[in-house]
Design goal:
The chain is of the alpha/beta class. It contains 13 helices and 29 strands. The strands form eight sheets. Strands 14-27-28-29-25-26-15 form a seven-stranded mixed β-sheet. Helix 2 crosses helix 11, helix 7 crosses helix 8 and helix 11 packs across helix 12. It binds adenosine-5'-triphosphate and magnesium ion.
Length: about 575
């Protein structure tokens, strides 16, 4: 896990005067403001619209939008890095906008696209050719790779490197007119084929791609490469601090090189930080895309996915994700964060805001023999025992109930404080009942129902309401409860580091129990009003969020967001692989 404190730290002063410990990026920014290098901060979040956002992107969003919000007159742009029409789409762009908003951030009028700058970028490319800092290369892709050399061997100059400026200008113009096929020529920066940094060995800056672009249509058939478009887009927007992940550290000399060669309005400072990695999942869009395309999950917003949309459907609130991003902090050291920490943030957030309700996922019938036949009553029960302001509802009670099978044992160990033959338990908010007889299926021997009696004096307000028994269990009235579908989600992979072993496909490490469907569970009748997106705590079981109704049965669907306790942490301590199903 990331150790906070491994980076230079300082106090930064937020606009409201409140001081908080700053990460190294906030410390650098505070310094730039205090020395007068900048009067305000401009950042950007630059997603490529080639997939949905994941929780790693949320870290970058919280940082970029967060830093801008901390300083007066500062702002963060949402800029789509849409330079590769082969993989990008308007659908992804819309999904990204939805997710950034949902996380609680607003770009206001500052929505930009690298494609907004295509003409400007093209003109700068021509400037580079004119000043003999770029040339059209006519080697094939394979040849360019072979000429590039390796970490231990310098590259070799392309035979086209010294082609006359006029010839490169002419070829680049004709590339832009569509006279050549994809791959026939590329435009390369002329830097240093012997540089120890491979990124500086005459990187490609434009290539031919005869594709329709979702923003610019067929206006272009040459597209700029990331390294060229990114720094220049930052410069056009007068970004002060260009925050990116560590893998771009080796690209920084190139970032600075382009800005030094060209007449740009600003020279942003690139600062790298460690990307977020999480246990039990994969985070690259390429891998997530494979899971979607091959049907290992139901879509980008499958509740098992580490995507923002998946987490939303699973029931996470943006508050929990922002809290998580704040707790992991910003450092320069690569680390893998325990999924348990994210789940802790989710539990803590939901604990404060969800109503507690009763639901039975694995029903066992209880018949109360001494309860008046055909009768029922209502019990007033608070939605959150510690928070009366959350209100209460009426729970229906009758002579036939469902309890969870796990709450009964025919031959229990001594410390089993739930129901067993001859033993008593309290029904949550209700009476104390006693199990008198176990009814079994004669053929299979399975327990099918329990005959019990109740003590009428033990209801809240009754003479014996304070009588103590060791266990309290949840229940619903069989005649009043509503049948629903429940999806018990668990971690997507069964090992902490599914991406680590390169000899094995990460897809072979998917957790076969990552989703278990309970097609008929029973919830208390107050949940008949539950709507998609509503969140509840099922007492003693976990947090659940309503999804779209099941298309086959029309039943309400509850997704398990997270269990009440971390069963994985306990198991890892015991050295076991997969957790008890909860
Ligand atoms: P992936 O590798 O998952 O495909 P990416 O870096 O290609 O991600 P982009 O859309 O280019 O995805 O990323 C947009 C921004 O989000 C970039 O500034 C990138 O550095 C940042 N980002 C991406 N993944 C992470 C991560 N795991 N942790 C922190 N920031 C991230
Ligand atoms: Mg990228």
């Amino acid at each position: 896990m990331n150790q906070p404190g491994s980076e230079p730290r300082a106090e930064s002063t937020a606009p409201d005067g409140d001081t908080r410990p700053a990460d190294f990026i906030r410390a650098l920014i505070a310094q730039d403001l205090s020395t007068g290098k900048h009067s305000h901060v401009v950042t950007r979040f630059p997603p490529e619209p080639n997939g949905y956002l994941h929780i790693g992107h949320a870290k970058s969003i919280c940082l970029n939008f967060g830093v801008a919000a901390e300083h007066p007159g500062s702002y963060c742009t949402l800029r789509f890095d849409d330079t590769n029409p082969a993989k990008e789409s308007a659908e992804y762009m819309e999904a990204i906008k939805r997710d950034v908003h949902w996380l609680g951030f607003d770009w206001g009028s500052r929505l930009r696209h690298a494609s907004d700058y295509f003409q400007h970028l093209h003109d700068w490319a021509v400037d580079l050719i004119r000043s003999d800092k770029a040339y059209v290369d006519s080697l094939s892709g394979d040849e360019i790779r072979a000429y590039r050399g390796t970490l231990t061997e310098p590259g070799r100059p392309s035979p086209y490197r010294d082609r006359p400026v006029e010839e490169s200008l002419d070829l680049f113009t004709r590339m832009g007119r569509g006279e050549f096929d994809d791959g026939a020529h590329v435009l390369r920066a002329k830097i240093d084929m012997a540089s120890p940094n491979l990124n500086m060995r005459d990187p490609i800056i434009y290539r031919i791609r005869k594709l329709t672009h979702h923003m610019t249509g067929d206006a272009w058939c040459i597209y700029p490469m990331y390294d060229f478009s990114h720094c220049l887009s930052d410069a056009i927007e007068c970004v002060t601090h260009s925050l990116c992940t560590l893998e771009f550290e080796d690209h920084r000399p190139l970032y600075d090189w382009f800005l030094a060669q060209l007449d740009v309005p600003a020279h942003p400072r690139q600062i790298e930080f460690a990307r977020l990695n999480l246990t039990y999942t994969v985070m690259s869009k390429r891998r997530l895309n494979e899971l979607v395309a091959e049907g290992h999950v139901t879509g980008w917003d499958d509740p098992r996915m580490p995507t923002v949309s998946g987490m939303r459907r699973r029931g996470y609130r943006p508050e929990a994700i922002r809290d998580f991003c704040e707790r992991i902090g910003i450092t320069k050291k690569d680390a893998v964060i325990d999924m348990g920490l994210l789940e802790t943030c989710v539990r803590e957030d939901l604990d404060a805001v969800t109503r507690r309700v009763l639901a039975v996922l694995n029903p066992l019938k209880v018949i109360i023999d001494n309860y008046p036949e055909g009768h029922s009553e209502e019990i007033d029960a608070p939605y959150h025992p510690q928070k009366p302001e959350m209100g209460s509802r009426k729970l229906a009670f009758s002579g036939q109930l469902f309890i969870d099978r796990d709450d009964f044992m025919e031959d229990p160990p001594r410390k089993f404080f739930r129901l067993a033959p001859g033993r008593e338990v309290r029904l949550r908010y209700g009476y104390i009942i006693r199990c008198n007889e176990v009814l079994k299926d004669p053929a299979s021997g399975d327990v099918i129902a329990l005959r019990c009696s109740y003590d009428p004096e033990t209801r809240s307000g009754g003479a014996q309401s304070g009588r103590k028994v060791k266990g309290t269990i949840h229940w619903v009235s069989a005649a009043h409860a509503q049948p629903v579908q429940v999806r018990l989600y668990d971690r997507l992979f069964s090992v902490p580091d599914p991406g680590a072993d390169k000899s094995q496909s990460f897809k072979d490490l998917l957790n076969p129990d990552s989703m278990r469907v309970v097609s008929q569970a029973w919830v208390e009748s107050s949940l008949s009003k539950a709507r998609p997106g509503d969140r509840y705590q099922f007492e003693r079981q976990g947090y659940f969020c309503v999804d779209q109704p099941d298309p086959e049965t029309g039943r309400t669907v509850f997704n398990r967001t997270v269990t009440l306790r971390d069963s994985w942490a306990r198991l890892e301590k015991q050295g076991s692989q997969s957790p008890r199903r909860g």
